[in-house]
Amino acid sequence: MRCYLESLPAEEVLRISDPTDIDYRPTALVLELEKRRQAPVVMIDRPVGFDMPVVTNLFASRDRIARMVGVAPGGFNEAWTAAIENLLPATVVDDGAVQQIVRTGPEIDVGTLPISRHFDKDAGRYVGSGILVCKDPDTGTRNLSYQRLQLKGPRKFGASLHSRGHIWEHLQRCEARGRNLEVAIVIGVHPAINLAAAAKVAMDVDEFAVAGALLGQPVELVRCKTIDVEVPAQAEIVIEGEILADEHEDEGPFGEYTGYSTSRSTRNVFVVKAITHRASPIFHDIIPGYSSEHLLLGRAAKEAHTFMRLKEMVPGLKALNFPKSGTHFHAYMSFKKTAEGQTRQALMLLLGLDSYLKLVVAVDEDVDVFNEEEVLWALATRFQADADMFMVPDVFCNRLDPSSADGTSAKLALDATAPLDWDAERAVVPAAASAWATSLLDRR
Ligand SMILES: Cc1cc2nc3c(=O)[nH]c(=O)nc-3n(C[C@H](O)[C@H](O)[C@H](O)COP(=O)(O)O)c2cc1C
Ligand SMILES: [Mn+2]
User: Fold this and answer.
1) I need a surface site. Which of 118, 161, 240, 376 has the fewest CB within 10 A?
2) What's the pLDDT score for residue 444?
3) Where does 314-416 sit in CATH, by number?
4) For 335, how many CA atoms within 13 A lie in the half-sphere containing its CB?
5) Residue 253 has what pLDDT?
6) Ligand nearest, relative to CA of residue 163
C-alpha cells in the first residue's frame, strides 16, 4: 500500500497534519468531500491517542480504481476479464515486512490500533477494511473477503458474516466438526488485492491469484505465526486469530452500505492470537455506510465479473452499471438486440448472476447506463408496464435490504428497449455541429 500511496500525484491526496480526532471525523470529512464531488485519498498523519497514520477514501473514484490495476479509465472490465483468464497464483516466501514486529499473548491489545467510530448509532469502534483470509477446511483453497469487526476487547472482535459468502460456508463445515475457523485479518495492502478480495468468484478460486493477475506479478505471502494461513508479506498489519465455532454474542448496530444502521448480524466471535506489523505501520480505513468508497469497492469487481459472465450469453452486451443509488440492488444493462425476446433472456440471466439484485433494467445501446437520467428517459419513452416487465417473488437476496423478509425478496425486470420494428426516431443534431460545439467549449 505504501508504494501505491507514494505513486499518487500530490493533487490527489488530502493530507491532514494537525492532530485529528478519528472518532466520526474521517467519515464526516469523506461524506462532505463527496457532496462537493471531490474524491481525494485522505491521509491523517496524527490521529489523537494513536501512534500511526490513517489513510482512507482510496476507492472513492472509478478512474482511480482503473489506474490501480494499471489501466486507463473505462478499462477495468477488460482488465478483470483478462485477469480471470490468466490467474497468477501467489508464492510463499520465508519472511516479510509485515512480521517486523510480532506481538503475542499478553502483549496483544488491538485497541491500540487507530480504529475509528464511523456513525452515531454504531455499537463502537469498527474495522471495515480488514481482508479476512481463511482456508476451505476440505480443499485448503484460500478465501479473501471483508467482514465488519467490532472492537470488543484487547483480544476480541465481534464479526458479522451476513453476506453468507465463502467464509460463512467454511465456518459451517468447521462447526460441523467442532472446530474453530482460523482467520487472518489483513490491513493495508496494494489496492489491487483489496479489489480482488471484494469479488465474488467461484469457491475454488483463491482471490490472491486474481490479485496477482491484476498486478502482473504473483502476490508474495508469508506464513502466519500462530495459525495455518498465509498473508501478504508486504502488508502493513495482520491480526491472526480464530472465529469460534458455535459461539455467538451481540454485535452491532453498524451503519451499512444500504444507508441504514443495522443490528442484523450472524453475531460471530473472533479471538486474537497475534498481531504482526511493519516497524512503522500505516492503518487503512474504508469509510463504511452509503459512501462512494464502500459502494465502488464493493461493486467494481462484481460489476466486471457479472459483465464477463453475462457477455458470454449476450454477445450484444455493451455496458453494465450497478448505480450507487441502488446500493448493489439495482443494475442497468445496455445491449444491441437482434431478436425479440432476447431482452427477457438477458434480464433473467442478470438477476440470476447476482443474488443482491432486485431491480434490473435493459436499455438499447444508444442509452448511457452510467447516466441515470438517460435510463429514466428510456423508461419514460420505450416502456409500457403492462407488456414490458416481469416479477419473480420469493428469491434469495441480501438480508440487509430492510424491505426484504426472511432472506428473500421480489425481483423486478424492466425492458426499456424499443421493439426491433420501432419507427420513432430520436431527434439529434448533425455530427458536424456537435463536433463544432465540443471544440468551441474545449478551447475555453
Ligand atoms: C468494504 C466491504 C465491507 C464488507 N463488509 C461485510 C460484512 O461486514 N459482512 C459480510 O458478510 N460481508 C461484507 N462484505 C461483502 C463481502 O466481503 C463480499 O461479498 C465478498 O466478495 C465475499 O467474498 P466471497 O465471495 O469470497 O465469499 C463487505 C464488502 C466490502 C467491499
Ligand atoms: Mn471467495
Assistant:
1) 376
2) 87
3) 3.40.1670.10
4) 27
5) 98
6) 1
